Amino acid sequence: MITISLCMIVKDEEATLWNCLNSAKDIADEMIIVDTGSTDRSKEIAKEFTDKIYDFEWVGDFAAARNYSFSHATMEYILWLDADDVLLPEDQQKLLELKNTLDPSIDSVSMIYNYGFDKYGNVTLSFRRNRLVKRSKNFQWYGDCHVYLQVNGEILDTDICVSHKRIHHSSGRNLAIYEKRIAKGDVFSPRDYYYYAKELMENGFHEKAIENFNIFLNMKGGWREDKIAACGKLGDCYGKIGDVKKQKEAIFKSFEYDSPRPEICCRLGNLLKKDRNYKAAKFWYELATKYERPKDNWGFFNEAYTTWIPHLNLCVCYYYLGNYEKAYEHNEIAREYRPQDKSILYNKQLIENKF
Q1: Is-above-0.85 flag for pTM?
Q2: Superfamily of domain 259-355
Q3: Which helix (H) or strand (E) holds 203?
Q4: DSSP letters along 38-87, please?
Q5: What is the pLDDT of residue 354?
Q6: Where is the Glycosyltransferase 2-like domain (predicted)?
Q7: What value, to the nearest 5°, has the Cα angle with vertex 60 and ends 216 and 180?
Q8: Is 4-164 in CATH node 3.90.550.10?
């Protein structure tokens, strides 16, 4: 059996920290909590689970804080979580089984990160992260904002999930970090430009986000998955400012990097449906439902764009094309994922009245 250090950085996380630590208490042999300046009860909550609590002066650098937490670990492997993450019971059991059976030649274990959920509990956004790493390899975090853990060696991909249960989000915090770097004259990498553009977009600066998404897309280098995602987000930004021509160009640009992804298909379907071109829109929504995610794809994946979203829109398209049987069929598929969705229930009643 391997031993595990849980390493975390926290600040003002009293709303979620207890649930996180409680979900990991039977897995971790020690818990390392690095506090970056809490003014709430975060430290008191952490003391219920561990006495290994360390202060770290916040310097606007998440990688530095995470690396500091790793430096205090003493066990064979390091597990990292955020304060608003939890391990659900089935995943706790899977991780305990892995702890008992893991081959010590494994350098890193990746797990699925279920990052977004709808109000019905369906996963809406997931991706894979290296979660459990061998301490002796001294893997380091990089980046001061949207950080990443650089690993190498033998990596084991598992179906263990970490579930993100976010309650609050300080949207301007990350943007401020990037703006400070710009003011210092830092040179941005392709990854920096992508995440800076994302922060601009999330804070409503769509024209500036467009500028930086385009810089990123025109740069050599950068992860293919980020390039594809940037095309979709760039299209959304153009849509916000009413430039439909540029919106379509941005969406189609994603085809330069890979075959059409489901979220791209749905974006095209939405534009065509808005123009009442239901036959053409139907083609793209149907294509979205046929997408199979490659097992080795670590990119962001929104299950909604292969399930209820395209089926709900196919219901609308078939309805206006006069094919009520197909409209009902797709609405029923959407209802399997969102049985209490008012729009889906309305469609059900509306179409049943047509028979």
Answers
A1: no
A2: Tetratricopeptide repeat domain (1.25.40.10)
A3: none
A4: --SSHHHHHHTT-S-EEE----S-HHHHHHHHHHT--SSEEEE--TTEE-
A5: 86
A6: 5-147
A7: 55
A8: yes
